[in-house]
Give the backbone structure.
Amino acid sequence: MTTLSQVLTASTALAGALVLPGLAEARQVTLTTELANYGGDGAYLAFYVTDASGKYMGSLWMSGGRSKYYRHLSGWEQASGGDPAEVAGITGASVGQGQTLTLTLDLADSLFDAGYVLHVDAAVEHMRDSPDEIAVPLTAAGVSAKGGTYIAKLSYKS
């Protein structure tokens, strides 16, 4: 299995809305996304956060650097308005089937156990799009969740 790793800092990973005014405390979170063997090209993945009411708070990471394909990440596009500036500086290569993407992020403590939700949209060329492939609450305890079409498993821990 191939592992792709990316270390991000709060200033880049929390893209605008997630850098809350007066942010005093943050925790380092390791997010691991294992892709299934789905029989296609590399997956574009959009990682973003919404609040308890579903309001978009910000993007954490975008796997796949060609913005013309972002429209296929329809949950992210609808939430963010599809603005490529939302992921400026926080993009990387698409992730191949069977690979694991590991991200290390600094997230505000105030995001945990407060109703915020981590969403992951997935899309693969010539295959169907998968908005909200995974949506899990941000909790201090962490999460391990089964994916859908392209993601076998997503987990995070702090």
Remarks:
- The CA atoms of residues 46 and 62 lie 5 Å apart.
- The radius of gyration is 14 Å.
